[in-house]
Design brief:
alpha+beta, Alpha-Beta Plaits, 5-stranded antiparallel beta sheet
Length: 204
Amino acid sequence: MAVSQYTYKTIALESTAEFSDRGSKFIAFTYQVANTEEIKARVKKLKEMHPKAVHFCYAWRLGFDLSQYRANDDGEPSGSAGRPILGQIDSLQLTNVIVIVVRYFGGVLLGVPGLINAYKTVAQQALIHGGIAEKDRVCSYTLKFDYTIMNEVMRIIKMHHCHISAQQMALFCEISLQIALAEQDIVLKKMQDLHGLEIASTDH
């Protein structure tokens, strides 16, 4: 899959979709996620909300380079659930997203082809309903500086639409900042020209 240098694609909105086949009901849920802790919480929450469902199959992909992923069949025949779901995520080149499909069993076995069709179809419908958003890839930094240069620092932040995720403003200030990757070089150059400003990357 082609990976953009400065942007990535994910779902625009959380969404759901339903699909039925021979009495079994499949309900797909899509969420934006940033890490495996959020993924575990999403799966746990749906299990609490649907205690009578028999399967919670899912797939996710994380990372700007699309390198992290998992497909989980949750007891369905191998390759019949998680992989079809992941295939729909990848067909749209999405990342930082999870699709979880909750299955209520209807009493009739669908066979592997029927399961693949059900999980693929409902995942596709949910992703289409949520829409696609293209977002800036970002890098994270911590800034430390004396209050006397705050105006200059804030001017650069505002000019380049950087996102402040945390800040402590006193005689000595500290800001946690996200900079769009496309703006990183010019922002860092301007900040490095400010006397007394310490800049440290917080990306791991």
